[in-house]
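Thread: sanity check for a docking pose with zinc ion

Original post by kr_44:
Hi all, I'm comparing my docking run against an independent structure prediction. Below are the sequence and the ligand SMILES. Could someone generate the full complex and paste the structure tokens? I mainly care about where the ligand ends up relative to the chain.
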Amino acid sequence: MLIGRPSCLSTDGTAARVACRGARRSFDRASSVADCPRSASTPACLTQSELQGQSAADDADEVTNMHKGSCLCQSIQYELSAELGDFGYCHCKSCRKASGSAHAANASVDRNNFRLLSGTDTLREFESSPGKFRAFCSRCGSPIYAYVAKTRDVLRVRLGSLDTPFGKTVKAHTFVADKADWDRIEGAAPQFAAWAPKSVLDQRGTLQGEGESS
Ligand SMILES: [Zn+2]
Ligand SMILES: [Zn+2]
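Reply from moderator J.T.:
Ran it for you. Here is the predicted complex with zinc ion included:
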């Protein structure tokens, strides 16, 4: 990641250290936002060794971080260290309510590949049905991920929260029998009244194949 270094960087950094603590926080925050790090300026309180450490961390980021994401108000920032699984559009009533739209678009990642960078104080969980938890930002309401208790080590990330390109295309429409009357489904992806077969769309971390609703 190439973050611009300002000309105001001091070599000793001591005098400015306290005064620019706020600026440093802003820098740290900006550095974790995918759409603006290249315009972020480095506060003068960063020492040369800290900058080198930052640089090493940036290099590591490029190797391990597959995706970054955030909520609407930016309180919650996260990164993924593995690629997400395939996704479908779920038109069930729960997904419509939770997303506020015609369908959900979620993909799986192992919990140990999901790292919350900020927002532990605003992230909340709602148990929408027994054993099904939906995590969202309590400040702006953005859905972030969901999981079911019996597979709690697999998270279903809400693709709308991603700040990085994903590139995959939708594999199937599911729970079409539940869709809203104003929802016109278009495109070539196959449609299923309830779950899609796993051969078409494997929805890790859901109750797919267990005869239950989504
Ligand atoms: Zn938020
Ligand atoms: Zn659903």
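The chain has two domains: 14-64, 84-214. Hope that helps with the comparison, let us know if your pose agrees.
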